[in-house]
């Protein structure tokens, strides 16, 4: 501030008194002076000349400038304030030192006083340099914090975008699956209605044929009856002569036999043409066959970044390169969970391990630490079987190797929550691999899956649907 004012001081200085202008006036030659200084100078001169350029002037030439006068007064005030800032308010001495204890500029008298005794002090220039260095360190630290915050913010934005992308993907899958169901129902409706119309047409044709036949029979019988009445009007001898012929005609009319059970048959067939409950059951059964999804599906939001879950959520594969997925709270450090948790009942699901040479399947508590490597031990809330390096292994603390005669292709996991039991067995030969018993479940548990083989995925099947 002081340096800025010193640069401007020459512009506000009267060339005669060398002080800041007091009531400045300007001549036509553009030179300015204090009014009093100019009048005193001219009083000593015979010819009125500009003190600077020596150009001749007239006495009424000096012109006052209120704006310039205001600038001069403002400059004086600022100069006085700067001068006051540089002075010690207590001793009226120039501030030359800085006290680091009290964090304020001091003068030499302050430095020697008891108030600042034993205080660390240094010259103003050195103090400014040191404090600026300290400030730079603070700024750099804040910049690091700012960069970290920006990185975290970018991560959150990326997570938000990934969540949006995943949501859109799931939404599309939902729409696709429901579109299939809608199309299935529309086709079923069209098929059933077409079949109903066909049966209606066939029955109407049969009934119409019977109506036509009955109309013919009615006409024949009516004619026979009318002829009989006519014969009854004949004379006695003629009536008796033709009686045998007439009675035969009435007892054996030339018409086909009429089915007296026709109405009952039609009623039965009518009942059979409206089997709504059977129809609904049939369609529902066919719809279940259409839905090939296993009762236990995978939750992609829990899959670690090296596991890829299939679109139908029924298989998981290991990938060498990490996937770009959001680090949401439910995501595991290693593995993937089933989408449905269990807190009661009996549940089972089949896992096809095939030729996979590195896998883990089992059940885990909902509360396990998902951001750490899970310990394969019941005491840690995990009940599982692992296959690695050609060995089947159960547990971690009390590790147990399983000796199996044949490698199972499919393993069924059976969870009995109330009984506190988890059984792993080969479903086709009903051979038990291992059973965890006497478990006291205290929370919801989830199916757990993990694979480290990039060539062979783990596949899930409904326990009652798998056939070979």
From TrEMBL:
Pfam families named in the record: PRY, SPRY, zf-B_box, zf-RING_UBOX
Coiled coil: 125-224
Gene3D superfamilies registered for this protein in UniProt: 2.60.120.920, Classic Zinc Finger (3.30.160.60), Zinc/RING finger domain, C3HC4 (zinc finger) (3.30.40.10)
All copies of domain B box-type, residue ranges: 83-124
Domain RING-type: 14-54
Superkingdom field: Eukaryota
UniProt keywords, alphabetically: Coiled coil, Metal-binding, Zinc, Zinc-finger
Domain B30.2/SPRY: 276-467
GO molecular function: zinc ion binding
Protein name: Zinc-binding protein A33-like
Source organism (scientific name): Pygocentrus nattereri
